[in-house]
Design the sequence.
């Protein structure tokens, strides 16, 4: 590297004039590092910031201290709740069934998860079929390991309503 390149490099790094860089480089006998040190001593270049690293434990007020129990609760609590919810939902859907009968004869038992999937993907057809089937003596009953009395009450109420509608048409 020739003298001009060294002066230019020193000027850009130290942000000094051409004359100051040339004088410092001349005083340092062409050594860039020594020229930088000379300029620092003259106060023309800001020296590197001092950084102190230590392995000593200190508390810094700018950091929020989170107790260990709270940190675990924040990160794992939501995951545990989701996992528990999914576990209960899968258990509920797997251990409960829909029984379909016609005129008192058993036709089919469907797991609740299959009935819900059918409702999700073909809701428009399934709802129409259920409503129409109630007028032709088809019955639906929920059973399984869980208490499904409320669901059965809704189905019974729908069946009663269908019977009332049928009776009103017969009277006319």
Sequence:
């Amino acid at each position: 590297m020739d003298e001009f390149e060294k002066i230019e490099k020193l000027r850009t790094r130290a942000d000094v004039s051409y004359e100051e860089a040339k004088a410092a480089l001349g005083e340092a006998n062409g050594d860039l590092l020594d020229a930088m040190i000379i300029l620092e001593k003259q106060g023309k270049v800001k020296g590197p910031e001092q950084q102190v690293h230590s392995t000593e434990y200190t508390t810094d007020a700018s950091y929020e201290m989170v107790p260990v129990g709270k940190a675990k609760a924040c990160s794992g609590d939501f995951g545990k709740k989701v996992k528990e919810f999914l576990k209960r939902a899968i258990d509920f859907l797997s251990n409960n069934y829909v029984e379909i009968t016609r005129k008192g004869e058993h036709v089919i038992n469907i797991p609740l998860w299959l009935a819900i999937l059918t409702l999700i993907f073909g809701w428009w057809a399934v709802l129409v079929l259920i409503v129409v089937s109630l007028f032709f003596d088809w019955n639906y009953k929920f059973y399984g390991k869980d208490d499904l009395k409320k669901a059965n009450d809704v189905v019974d109420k729908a069946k009663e309503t269908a019977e009332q509608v049928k009776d009103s048409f017969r009277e006319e």
Q: What stands out?
A: The helical segments are 3-14, 18-27, 32-41, 68-94, 112-134, 149-171. The longest strand covers residues 96-102. The mean pLDDT is 83.
